[in-house]
Amino acid sequence: MYLSRRARMLLATLTFGTLGFIYVPLIVVAINSFNPSRSFSWPPQSLSTVWWGRLTESNGVLPAIATSIKVGLGATAIALVLGTCIAFAVSRYSFYGKNTLSLLVIFPIALPGIITGIALNTTFHTFLDPLNKELALWTVVVGHATFCIVVVYNNMLARLRRLGQSLEEASQDLGANIFQTFRFVTFPLVRSALVAGGLLAFALSFDEIVVTTFTAGPGTETLPQWIFNNLFRPNQAPIVNVVATLLIVVFIFPVWLSQHYSQDGSAGGRL
Amino acid sequence: MTIAIRLSKVAKSFGEVKAVDGVDLEIADGEFFAMLGPSGSGKTTVLRLIAGFELPDSGLIEIDGVDVSQTPPFNRDVNTVFQDYALFPHMTVLENVEYGLKVKKVGKAERAVRARKALQRVKLEGYEARKPAQLSGGQRQRVALARALVNEPKVLLLDEPLGALDLQLRHEMQVELKELQRDVGITFIFVTHDQEEALTMADRIAVFHAGNIVQMGTAREIYEQPNSEFVAGFVGISNLLHRDQKVISIRPEKIKLGQVGDRVYSGLVSSVMFLGALTRINVLIGDDTLTLLAENDGTQEFPTVGDQIEISWNSKYEFQVG
Q1: Is A166's CB within 8 Å of B82's CB?
Q2: B103 contacts in A (CB within 8 Å)?
Q3: What structural domains does chain A harbor?
Q4: Which of B144, B164, B187, B273 could form a Cys-Cys staple with B4, CB 3.0–4.6 A?
């Protein structure tokens, strides 16, 4: 397509403007994590790793990270199993209410977290209170799984649709039973979609705060909750910058991985 | 003559659509059999019923005398060459060909030997380590053939085997498939919508229309004695002539210029088309247009458009189709 010089300049400006809009705040956080000033005076007078050193001694951040990882892994595991099963059912069989089912599965991702949160909170209390049980870690896992299923489902469905059934038919035709077909043909061909979906699901769970707030029991604090609670404490705020920087670095990797794996770009989701 | 495949009153519907409507069919051991018909005629469904990808609503399917009507595909002694080849993209050529032996627990050494032999048979040595994506369409088809033949099935099913190839390659493969079949002695059943393909390759042809077989016979029988207007029109160029409330079919190469045969008609030349070896001339007789193919052998003068000419044929070549 031909673009005039001015159009190209405009496009370049817009592109860099957009990228700057997204990434400048991240860079500021990263620099501030090395800013020894407690009030984050800008520009930093000097650079120091003083806050990084206090990361491990800091109160509650490591347990919070551990909690977030547990929740993320739990929700991802549930999402992988259920999302894959539904994707198989929808792509391989025709049955009454198939489109409705698909819509119902995808819906939670569009539903505001606050609604999901309130609904889950009410439901959990309704069923747990008579048993004298409280909200706990597993209630957060279940809460997160509701929207984690969506990304796994979407990834798998796209992959299964693109694969079609002829490879599985070919496998059966050559004498492989259903289990052999899954092991040698289906699974190797959907594995990358599973990985991509799982990574997205984990990332989604890891930064969730609204649903978490409504489903977490006393004593259960995920990392986003910890950050939210500590951001406005003068003593802890610098540590928040350090944690944020750490997470940016850690999270580039799985996002890159999932991009790499889901070439069809159908991943979707709010990362 | 032993029967490799027998279908009795096989029917299959998809929802409201009757895809296959009571097909009876017997295919002999070692036969090269074509199922010919337009899309939606039921030929592919019959192939899938034999392979076991679809189960019949009613009727009986026998392979080698054994009822397999409800047997899953992996327990049937047939193998399929798929239209899109359906090669496993994550496996090498050799792994693809070995697959059937591997799932049947044939030892590693033996299956490598047999797979290489199968690849040799389809003239694809040296490609063992490639992935399907690195092959051309023709090569992929050879892999698909080797992958099926390595299992030495009772019957090989081919779904539009040459459909995805270009014209040149298609003609080469027609000859090669025929030779291959003679060589391995396995019953080949192939589905095609291309009448030329069916006529050149098959020992016997079943013409499908609307979920049923309308005519079955050798290529020559189907071509020269079509039993209906549909078959006459679908196989070869159809020349239909209405005469005394009857419909007569006559093949274009049987019609001659001038009074040579015992059926003589006079008509108006409506088009003359030079085709290289042949010239195609359309002649209007009453309301019917007859096409004749005359050889460009230099022995005759061709008319021009608008000429009133006489054409003729031998009455033994004409067939009543309606």
Answers
A1: yes
A2: 171, 174-177, 180, 184
A3: 55-261 (1.10.3720.10)
A4: B187
Residues recorded for chain A: 271
Torsion sign across C-alpha atoms B194, B195, B197, B201:
positive
| Strand ranges across the sheet with B204-209 | B78-81, B155-159, B187-192, B32-36, B204-209, B212-217
Look at residue B42 and give its three-state secondary structure.
Answer: coil
**Tokens 């199993």 found at:** A81
DSSP state, B57? S
Residue A270 has pLDDT above 70, yes or no: no
Q: Give me the residues of B, 119-148, that contact A with CB < 8 A.
A: 147-148
Q: Specify the higher pLDDT residue, B322 or A144.
A: A144
DSSP class of residue B56 equals -
* Residues B231, B233, B234, B237, CA torsion sign: positive
CB atoms closer than 10 angstroms to residue B99: 26
Q: Give a three-class secondary structure readout of chain A.
A: CCCCHHHHHHHHHHHHHHHHHHHHHHHHHHHHCCCCCCCCCCCCCCCCCHHHHCCCCCCCHHHHHHHHHHHHHHHHHHHHHHHHHHHHHHHHCCCCCHHHHHHHHHHHHHCCHHHHHHHHHHHHHHHHHHHCCCCCHHHHHHHHHHHHHHHHHHHHHHHHHHHCCHHHHHHHHCCCCHHHHHHHHHHHHHHHHHHHHHHHHHHHHHCCCHHHHHHCCCCCCCHHHHHHHHCCCCCCHHHHHHHHHHHHHHHHHHHHHHHHHCCCCCCCCCC
Is residue B231 packed enough to be buried (19+ CB in 10 Å), middle (13-18) or exposed (0-12)?
buried
B80 Cβ partners below 8 Å, 6+ apart? A169, A170, A173, B47, B51, B148, B156, B157, B158, B159
Q: CB–CB of A176 and B99 under 8 A?
A: yes
Which percentage of chain B shows pLDDT scores above 90? 67
Tens digits of residue pLDDT in A29-71: 888 888 877 777 777 777 777 778 777 776 788 888 899 999 9
- The whole-number average pLDDT for the span B108-125 is 93
| pLDDT attached to residue B154 | 93
Q: What angle do CA A250, A251, A252 make, to 5 degrees?
A: 100
- The helix (H) or strand (E) run that includes residue B113 is helix B108-121
Q: Which position has the token pair 């944020």?
A: A244
Structure tokens at B168: 């040149």
Instruction: Please give the mean pLDDT across all residues of chain A.
Output: 86
Q: Strands across the sheet with B308-313, in order?
A: B256-257, B308-313, B263-274, B278-285, B288-295
Please tell me which residue of chain A has the smallest CA distance to B89. Answer: A189
Tens of pLDDT, residues B56-88:
999 999 999 999 999 999 999 999 999 999 999
* Distances, alpha carbon B271 to alpha carbons B5, B33, B258, B298, B310, in Å: 47, 37, 17, 20, 15
User: How far is the alpha carbon of A170 from chain B, nearest alpha carbon, in Å?
Assistant: 6
Q: How confident is the model at residue A263 (pLDDT cuts 50, 70, 90)?
A: low
- Bridging pattern class, strands B78-81 and B66-67: unpaired
Q: Which residues of A touch B89 (CB under 8 A)?
A: 167, 189
Residue at B128: amino acid letter: E
